[in-house]
Design a protein that fits this description.
The protein has 8 helices and 16 strands. By secondary structure, the protein is an alpha+beta fold. The strands form 3 sheets. The chain has a 7-stranded mixed sheet. Strands 9-10-11-12-14-15-16 form a 7-stranded mixed sheet. Helix 3 links the parallel strand 6 (100-102) and strand 7 (127-131).
Length: 279
């Protein structure tokens, strides 16, 4: 860790720092393919003090004069998070210094922090880089018309963000998005849900977005999905595939809901997976 105690890793020439935006709360009843009491037991066995609490991470990536932010937290939307700006300052970075924002997807706990309290761009000099399927989904009136009341507010926030940054949006389908960082399709959670794989000087890491929301549950039980997943079955398939890759390759992983430590390795123990946090 650096001297400010922010979780920090070097990946070749990349410096990667986990920046907390705070927490949101979600009932374990939102999980599928597991009984709530079994989910609660997994949380308790792992020493989780508040079983319904979900931590929100963003990732600051610095290399070769670039200052990149991966996701921007909830920004206080629905009283979720809102600590990104203060924690960026602890890392010595002001919002005007961010030149690129990579989005894993456009759920509110990832894009809310892109707007300030007055609805203006919180990162006025940043290019917003997002998967083309993600952008088209949230801007599709047909999908909006079918949305529940809860989901409707998510659509409206995503549209406000995309409209605010419209002059500085760049879309991708696959491949390298900035030098040394490539997008990885991770389907199931949203139409354009993506991870970002960075590689430099023989080192690599994967920021995997929302592969898990409750890591102590969904890594032990990758078949467990959450109501936020657009396609729960596909999400589970993607999660299992990625856990296999991460454990086999001993790949450093980072995720928006991995917890405050921000970085981990996945270990395969027989037929099960375990998360091993790196401190």
């Amino acid at each position: 860790m650096n001297n400010l105690e922010l979780p920090d890793r070097s990946v070749g020439n990349f410096s990667v720092t986990a920046i907390s935006d705070g927490y949101l709360s979600a009932s374990l009843d939102l999980l599928s393919n597991i009984e709530p009491m079994d989910a609660l037991r997994l949380q308790h066995d792992a020493g989780v003090s508040d079983p319904s609490s979900i931590h929100i991470n963003c990732y600051l990536v610095r290399s070769a004069g670039r200052t990149i932010l991966i996701d921007a937290g909830a920004g206080g939307f629905k009283q979720w998070g809102g600590k990104l700006k203060a924690n960026l300052a602890l890392a010595g970075v002001q919002p005007t210094e961010i030149d690129t924002i990579l989005l894993t997807h456009a759920h509110p706990d990832h894009v809310g922090g892109l707007l300030d309290a007055s609805g203006e761009a919180a990162f006025p000099g940043a290019e917003l880089v997002v998967h083309q399927n993600e952008l088209s989904f949230w801007q599709d009136d047909t999908h909006l018309s079918r949305a529940s009341e809860r989901a409707r507010s998510n659509f409206l926030l995503a549209r406000q963000v995309f409209n605010t940054y419209r002059e500085r949006i760049r879309t991708f389908a696959e491949g390298e998005v900035v030098p040394g960082i490539s997008a990885m399709a991770l389907p199931g959670h949203t139409p354009g849900h993506s991870g970002f794989h960075m590689e430099s000087e023989g080192c690599s890491a994967l920021i995997w977005g929302d592969i898990v929301h409750f890591p102590q549950i969904q890594i032990a039980r990758p078949d467990v999905s959450i109501a936020f997943d657009q396609d729960p079955h596909l999400s589970a398939t993607t999660r299992s595939r990625l856990l296999d890759i991460a454990s086999s390759d001993r790949l450093l992983v980072a995720g928006m809901h991995l917890g405050e430590l921000g970085f981990a390795y996945i270990k395969r123990m027989g037929e099960r997976y375990e998360i091993s946090y790196e401190t």
